[in-house]
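request received
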Amino acid sequence: MFLLLSFTWIIAGITAEIPPAMHYRVKNSSLCLHIKPPGYQEYEWLFEKDLIVHSKNIKTKYKDKVYYNPKNGSLCITKLNETDSGTYSLSFINSDDERAIETHKLIVEETVSRPFIRSSPLHFNLSADPCNITVNCSVQGDWVCSVCDNNSCTISQRSLFSKVNITIFLHNRVIVCSGNNNVTKSNVSESMEGMCFGKSNPEPENVIKNRHLLLG
Ligand SMILES: *[C@@H]1O[C@H](CO)[C@@H](O)[C@H](O)[C@H]1NC(C)=O
Ligand SMILES: *[C@@H]1O[C@H](CO)[C@@H](O)[C@H](O)[C@H]1NC(C)=O
Ligand SMILES: *[C@@H]1O[C@H](CO)[C@@H](O)[C@H](O)[C@H]1NC(C)=O
Ligand SMILES: *[C@@H]1O[C@H](CO)[C@@H](O)[C@H](O)[C@H]1NC(C)=O
Ligand SMILES: *[C@@H]1O[C@H](CO)[C@@H](O)[C@H](O)[C@H]1NC(C)=O
Ligand SMILES: *[C@@H]1O[C@H](CO)[C@@H](O)[C@H](O)[C@H]1NC(C)=O
Ligand SMILES: *[C@@H]1O[C@H](CO)[C@@H](O)[C@H](O)[C@H]1NC(C)=O
Ligand SMILES: *[C@@H]1O[C@H](CO)[C@@H](O)[C@H](O)[C@H]1NC(C)=O
Ligand SMILES: *[C@@H]1O[C@H](CO)[C@@H](O)[C@H](O)[C@H]1NC(C)=O
Ligand SMILES: *[C@@H]1O[C@H](CO)[C@@H](O)[C@H](O)[C@H]1NC(C)=O
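response:
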């Protein structure tokens, strides 16, 4: 009884001490997992609780999905899809003759598509300054709304679902919307000039000058 207890304590101790290694991959790429110190014995690869490789043979279900090198134990998972996200574990006999587990967590994400930006002045008023612009930037079903004044953008509303981290900011009087996940990022920008008739916009002055020329 005491032996059994201390055994489970050791197992729990081992699994709790080593956090899973995180791996982020873009869809359709691949991930290779290696056995770090050679000398591990009787290793087996599992996906969740499912054996991928057993007695150095790839299970039929995984034949089109993985490459396995029986010499060094390396496992490569190919043509990654969201459905391949999850926990991959290596079960092995370590140098102390104990069965141990090493876990790897894989997250497969799509390439972030180009954000779609829509902006309009909040109030179209020649004499009002500063000019505020509402911006709605959407990426793959997620969106963020911000109000941008002449020096910053403030989030006013956002969608609940968030596969993509969306940020809207100003860079040299250009509104930039950037979307990223853990594997890729993409941005679009739109100039604030011409959207507002503020002090920094020379357009009204030009109109007056031109009128002068025509009259003169
Ligand atoms: C996945 O990658 C392979 C080559 O690595 C390519 O031939 C194929 O077109 C890609 N598929 C998609 C859906 O991107
Ligand atoms: C194991 O062998 C494969 C193919 O021969 C190779 O790509 C991989 O890098 C090797 N793994 C290690 C840890 O050397
Ligand atoms: C890839 O993942 C998507 C989303 O999870 C799923 O609908 C699709 O069936 C998967 N494709 C394959 C080939 O497994
Ligand atoms: C435009 O802004 C000025 C100053 O903020 C304000 O006095 C005026 O009423 C506004 N005009 C309109 C049409 O909103
Ligand atoms: C933004 O507008 C305010 C109010 O008109 C003005 O005081 C400030 O200088 C402006 N800032 C920039 C960076 O243009
Ligand atoms: C425009 O933005 C400024 C600064 O954020 C704010 O004080 C002002 O009330 C806003 N004006 C309108 C019409 O939303
Ligand atoms: C922002 O744009 C998205 C996509 O076009 C739309 O679904 C969403 O309702 C918009 N949000 C607001 C507050 O208008
Ligand atoms: C979200 O995007 C902002 C700006 O690009 C960045 O600073 C932040 O680290 C991102 N957060 C995550 C979780 O990727
Ligand atoms: C990156 O992945 C973690 C999960 O490991 C998730 O919580 C986080 O939101 C992701 N960040 C982005 C920007 O997608
Ligand atoms: C937008 O993306 C491009 C690459 O596509 C990058 O060179 C540029 O620095 C990005 N702009 C900002 C403001 O992040």
